[in-house]
Structure prediction request, 168 residues.
Amino acid sequence: MVALARKILEIHALTDLGRGVTTNVAPIWGGTRPNVIPPEAGCRIDFRVPSLAEGERIVAAIRAMAGTPEEGISIAIEGGMNRPPFPETPATLALYEAARGFASANGYDLPKQHRGGGSDGNFTAVMGIPTLDGLGCAGAGAHAPEEHIRWAELAPRCATLCDLLETL
Prediction:
């Protein structure tokens, strides 16, 4: 568990908000009970990057952590990027401006945000197809127990989606 804890700190050190790189290690598992050296331990790693080059750099850095740091301990790493980055392009910005105009006409502001999240939109955006994400339900607490939507905002948001579909 100590070797895993050290690697988790190394992975966390790869976070560079200025470059748009975030890392998160969870869940973490290992051991059976107190006072017993665990025969194995593990974790899952999630990272977000602004470009394929940054993704390749992070994957290489994490893969370089594999090996045998101490006698009796072996570190294996598998997997890689499961979603490409979501690049911002002039065509996507033009689509956003159209959506923002429709949102305004439907009574709400549609701020431009970058959250570093992963969606199916990542696959179309990296292909150069103008793609927007986050046009659905307004709410708060994403991926937390208090996650919720504001149902009163569903109709204007649906109207914006309909406006976009009718004009594309």
